[in-house]
Amino acid sequence: MAPAGLILCGGRSRRMGTEKALLEFAGERLIDRVHARLAEIAQPIFFAPGTVGRLGPLPGPEVSDTISNVGPLSGIAAGLAASPHELLCVVGVDMPWCNPALFELAADKWSGHDAVVPRDDNGAQVLHAIYARSALPQIERALAEQRRSVLALLDDLDVLYLDEESWRPLDAGGRFALNINAPGDLARFSSG
């Protein structure tokens, strides 16, 4: 089943000190790099910048958070509501090694679950995962109850976890889960 995509780019970039989505990484803006990778598996691709227009022109349609300033869960809700497809590949804009093959594996493994989420030594990678439209009512309920954690939401969903043995052949180093939060990350990842 063909998925749509969603790039979460509404964070405030406090630790970075400047807008992460527009930073250059390996010769291109992070937002463009993640978009190009996600476009290998998903169409259309939506952008969730928090507020439409906040980042200037983007290479695809934007969705406005369903509730402002409550984190990525609100962007995921907006993406699911806008998606023309049952499945939505969700990735953070600060994840420069977004892995289309891993998303393809997740879509292939999906069989009616609310989400398909890879796990590594750090736990569930909720911002490099697939969510199904069936998750939207639980997400909306969590937001209405002022529960904002995507990780905690998993307790309310039917989740298929992809453990390391299933995704390691597609990403031996687990780089898909690395994200850029601070200037030191940008320097370290750019040289590695």
Description of the structure:
This protein is of the alpha/beta class. It has 7 helices and 9 strands; from the N terminus they run βββαβαβαβββααβαα. The protein has helices at 30-38, 72-82, 100-109, 136-144, 150-153, 164-167, 183-191, and strands spanning 4-8, 24-25, 28-29, 45-48, 87-92, 115-120, 123-124, 128-132, 159-162. Strands 1, 4, 5, 6, 7, 8 and 9 form a 7-stranded mixed sheet that branches. The chain has a two-stranded antiparallel sheet with strand order 2-3. The protein is globular and about 35 Å long. It starts with a strand and ends with a helix. The model has no long low-confidence stretch (mean pLDDT 91).
Number of discrete helical segments = 7
Overall shape: it is globular
Report the oligomer: single chain
Stretches where pLDDT is under 50 for at least 5 consecutive residues are none
End-to-end Cα distance, whole Å, is 34 Å
Largest sheet: 7 strands, mixed
Q: Give the amount of beta strand, in percent.
A: 15-25%
User: How many beta-strand segments?
Assistant: 9
What's the rounded overall pLDDT mean? 91
Instruction: Decide which structural class fits the backbone.
Output: alpha/beta
> Radius of gyration from the CA trace?
15 Å
**Helix share, percent:** 25-40%
What is the string of SSEs from the N terminus onward?
A: EEEHEHEHEEEHHEHH
